[in-house]
Amino acid sequence: MSFFDKLKIFKRHNYFYYDKFHFLSTILWKFFWKPIFFSIDPEKVHHLVVNVMKLIKPLLAFNAHKYTFKYNFRNNKYLEREVFGIKFPNPVGLAAGFDKNAEIYKQMHDHGFGFIEIGTVTPKPQDGNPKKRIFRLVNDDAIINRLGFNNDGVDQIVNRLKKNINVIIGGNIGKNKDTPNEKAADDYLICFQKLYDHVDYFAVNVSSPNTPHLRDLQNTEGLRSILIPLIDENKKRSNKPILLKISPDLNNSDVLSIVDLIQELKIDGIITTNTTLSREKLKSDNKLKSQKGGLSGAPLRKRSTEVISLIHKYSKGNVPIIGVGGIMSADDALEKLNAGASLIQVYTGFIYNGPSFIYKINREIIKSLN
């Protein structure tokens, strides 16, 4: 073995080269970019970032990708996961809500995410709830949002996904705000049919707190009315994985009832959990913590992990789980995986920690396995 081969192995296993790059990236994020971004309205800065990333996308074709936050675990066997028939390059995904309209999934993949969940997608375009509708709770490492499924509609999103080549995409689907619950199944089926050839799995979202009465569909009868038509449609095609995304605010008995239904209907997995309406033990002032909407970030970590553990133990590990909620550090990610999650997703943790966050999580996962 040559000296250069040994050096490559040293870099791969001791994180010599990329650790330096990501250390500098973290310093820049903490002391430069984050203070700037956090001084701007959250929704405005999000649109700014999306637009900038769309602009730089053409540069990737000219080898400028070497300047992006790529990581060196692209083909690392320790990170690969095969879950519900899909081979994921690593277990860290981007949660729904960040790339709602499938505009920057390629760029986020280049940042190191193993898969991207787009949406929530509805049949018709909708603006969502009135602004201002996103609030940072910096003292709690948290965010409150009441966006309300703002998206461009399924047809525009499908057109963007037609350009996808190798990014694993989850399609998070929901209903339009003006669709009554008794007709919600029609909205889910429309999105399911139109997205079918362009996503790798589906996430059925009945747990957002920001669409009126949506969470009422989390009862057994409501879930059956939505899931059975999707299952029937799926059988006519190539049988893509269907997952259900649930709320952290369900009591444990309701969670177990949903697990029973999932196993009965042979749904492929569960995403645990969406945002919470709870405001317990928050440090932020009353003006912030009293804002309506779903809370994400550090305060959600404990409950999300409890639900993961509950489902994993009750199902004896037979229900694949994507763990999401309160992952603000690599240790939080490992906690979710150790509790029984097969894959994890981040959103708020990515906002607070910056682009190198995914690299750090993947690095710690490898270290925990060696």
Question: What attributes does this structure have?
Answer:
single chain, 370 residues, alpha/beta, TIM Barrel, eight-stranded parallel β-barrel, three-stranded antiparallel sheet, 13 helices, globular
Characterize the structure shown.
It contains 13 helices and 13 strands. With 370 residues, the protein is of the alpha/beta class. It has a single domain (70-369), classed as TIM Barrel (Alpha-Beta Barrel), CATH 3.20.20. The strands form 3 sheets. It has an 8-stranded parallel β-barrel with strand order 3-4-7-8-9-10-12-13, surrounded by 6 helices. Strands 5-6-11 form a 3-stranded antiparallel sheet, with no helix packed on it. It has a two-stranded antiparallel sheet with strand order 1-2. The longest helix has 22 residues, at 16-37. 44% of the residues are buried. Residues 6-16 and 61-69 have low confidence and may be disordered.
Total number of helical segments? 13
Report the order of strands and helices: HHHEEEHEEEHEHEHEHEHEHEHEHH
Task: Please provide the count of β strands.
Answer: 13
The outline comes out as globular
Ranges with pLDDT <50 over ≥5 residues?
6-16, 61-69
Outline the fold blueprint:
Elements: H1 3-14, H2 16-37, H3 42-56, E1 81-83, E2 86-88, E3 92-94, H4 105-110, E4 115-121, E5 134-137, E6 142-145, H5 154-161, E7 169-173, H6 184-195, E8 201-205, H7 220-235, E9 242-246, H8 252-265, E10 269-272, H9 286-289, E11 294-297, H10 301-314, E12 321-324, H11 330-339, E13 343-346, H12 348-353, H13 357-369
Parallel strand pairs: 3-4, 3-13, 4-7, 7-8, 8-9, 9-10, 10-12, 12-13
Antiparallel strand pairs: 1-2, 5-6, 6-11
